[in-house]
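Input record (one chain):
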Amino acid sequence: MEIDTFVPRRARLPLDHELVLAALAMAAVTAVYLLVVAVAGVPAASGLFGHSLGIFGFTLMLATETLYSWRKRSRSAGWGRMSTWLKIHIFTGIVGPYMVFLHTAWKLNGLAGLTLLMTGVVVASGFFGRYIYTAVPRTADGAVLERADIQRMLDAVEKAVGSPSAARPRREPGLVAAMLMVLGRFVFTWRDGIRAWLRDRGLDEAARARQARLDALVRRRDELQRQMVTLAAARRLLAAWHTLHVPLGLGMFSMAVLHVGAAMYYATLMK
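The corresponding structure, as predicted from the sequence alone:
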């Protein structure tokens, strides 16, 4: 089988699409917000623009809290892939809290401040969970791969490389060591990138292209090896994170509902 078969195609965007789209949406909201600030000053939370930010942000947070969970409980494949719903969950979970943050008009006292603090904790927890989630190998549809599937992929890549993997661990690490490998896998990425850059500096363009294809295979092989020995640990970490993240999200959403109810009471019924 040709080596190029295993070389991953270069992505058009440097980040996963949901993060790029979230960044673009936040940039657009920021541009409009700065325009309003330039014309009329910092918009009050009780003003038209401030209220609009709060309503749209809360709606996105509501979608974050409900849609992905609903899709996981739905057995109908006609509602789309789980991976797509997860991307929507991440997008709304980033953009919604950011709009709510702008809605506060930099006044972070009382229930509103506590709600925003809890929102920040939940968003940070979401980024951490996404990092762990990407450590668990999955199919394009989001189904978790088993050890046998990973082994078949690893064997195919090693055959393309042309040499058995000398880097394959002789024995699997303990649970704690495997968890540390999952949490610190970005170190392996940085290390491999620096090594490749140092090695390829003196190569001509054609040699650099050939080496890049081989490097891609070796990185894929090493990644599969780590996934083989850390699969159980990654699943445990993801389950533990989920046990913590869901109550945090429910607590944040409950405080947000209380804040909305209090705002409606004091702004409307008390007049």
